[in-house]
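PROTEIN DESIGN WORKSHEET
SECTION A - STRUCTURE
LENGTH: 371
TOKENS:
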């Protein structure tokens, strides 16, 4: 087709000159589906339209080529225009698996006779706060796919073997000419494996793999946290063609504790003390993850003061030590006082040159009925 006879690329795709890339892709996809040679066998006009659309897309989807074309038209394209088979990787992304384009352009996943690694598996495990801190041995029931023991994964009946596919001669692909380019398609008889099973295994129906539920022992190390992930090598699904098995990934969630809050490897808790303990100091019992511990509260402790108990937190995952436990102190203020308590506090206030407010008649009446 001479340059002067070429149709405008925007006209070919049926779009406006200001169209964006998504609109260009959508227009090309529609044209390609309509004029694809597989849907129009023996139709040279459809083949030419398909080729023309691919050429238009190849230019308009490229910013540099499109800018040059918009300025100079076909005459200014030089060697930049024309049908370019190397652009088919992009075309394969647009057309997806339609007509086998994934295999044709080399962008799809093909079956292979080579050993291939099995899929990884995920298992969601919920742990209590204590089990995450101290670690635990657990047994997981994991459903997965494994190689068939009856046929050793071959898919063939014991005593037989898969045979070379007669459709592709064992290559897994069939090549033939289609219009202006050669097509390599996955063999429909063997699905790209290059071999076919004449007598399938009765256990796996020729698949070579069966589903099972396996009990897998997993050691949860001390110090795991919410969101931790453990890898158990080789406990995923079986591979293909004697390939290695995938891995099992255990995703951990940890329940909250009623007393302790965790921040990395440190623990935090709240401790209430009386105002006399805060003023005079005291030794009190406070809860830790290891049990009760003695906490020395110095005289003059203020509300919301924080005390640290060293190495009473969570064990580091590498076993090199432990975090700390932080105790946040709150001071209890009594809501009612006895006469003796009030007298002593008033004396203290007097020593501090503080003058408590004069008690009203209602307060005195209340004291009379509560004595």
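SECTION B - SEQUENCE
RESIDUE ASSIGNMENT:
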């Amino acid at each position: 087709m001479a340059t002067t006879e070429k149709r405008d690329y925007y006209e070919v795709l049926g779009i406006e000159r200001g169209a964006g890339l998504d609109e260009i892709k959508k227009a090309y996809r529609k044209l390609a589906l309509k004029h694809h040679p597989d849907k129009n066998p023996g139709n040279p006009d459809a083949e030419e339209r398909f080729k023309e659309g691919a050429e238009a897309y190849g230019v308009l989807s490229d910013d540099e080529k499109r800018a040059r074309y918009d300025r100079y038209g076909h005459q200014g394209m030089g060697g930049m225009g024309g049908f370019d088979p190397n652009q088919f990787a992009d075309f394969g992304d647009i057309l997806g698996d339609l007509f086998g384009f994934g295999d044709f352009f080399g962008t799809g996943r093909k079956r292979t006779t080579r050993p291939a690694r099995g899929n990884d598996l995920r298992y969601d495990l919920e742990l209590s706060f204590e089990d995450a801190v101290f670690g635990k041995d657990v047994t997981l029931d994991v459903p997965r796919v494994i190689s068939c023991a009856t046929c050793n994964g071959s898919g063939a009946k014991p005593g037989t073997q898969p045979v070379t596919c007669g459709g592709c001669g064992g290559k897994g692909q069939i090549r033939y000419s289609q219009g202006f380019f050669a097509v390599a398609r996955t063999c429909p008889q063997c699905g790209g494996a290059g071999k076919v099973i004449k007598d399938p295994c009765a256990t796996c129906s020729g698949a070579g793999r069966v589903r099972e539920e396996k009990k897998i022992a997993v050691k949860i190390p001390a110090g795991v946290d919410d969101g931790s992930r453990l890898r158990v090598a080789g406990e995923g699904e079986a591979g293909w063609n004697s390939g290695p098995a995938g891995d099992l990934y255990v995703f951990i969630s940890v329940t909250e504790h009623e007393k302790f809050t965790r921040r990395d490897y440190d623990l935090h808790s709240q401790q209430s003390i009386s105002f006399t303990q805060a003023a005079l100091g005291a030794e009190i019992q406070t809860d830790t993850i290891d049990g009760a511990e003695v906490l020395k509260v110095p005289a003059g402790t203020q509300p919301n003061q924080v005390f640290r108990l060293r190495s009473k937190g969570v064990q580091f995952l590498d076993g090199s030590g432990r975090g700390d436990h932080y105790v946040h102190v709150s001071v209890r203020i009594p809501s009612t006082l006895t006469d003796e308590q009030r007298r002593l506090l008033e004396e203290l206030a007097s020593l501090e040159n503080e003058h408590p407010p004069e008690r009203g008649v209602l307060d005195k009446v209340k004291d009379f009925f509560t004595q």
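SECTION C - NOTES
Residues 85-93, 95-111 have pLDDT under 50 and may be disordered.
The longest helix spans residues 44-60.
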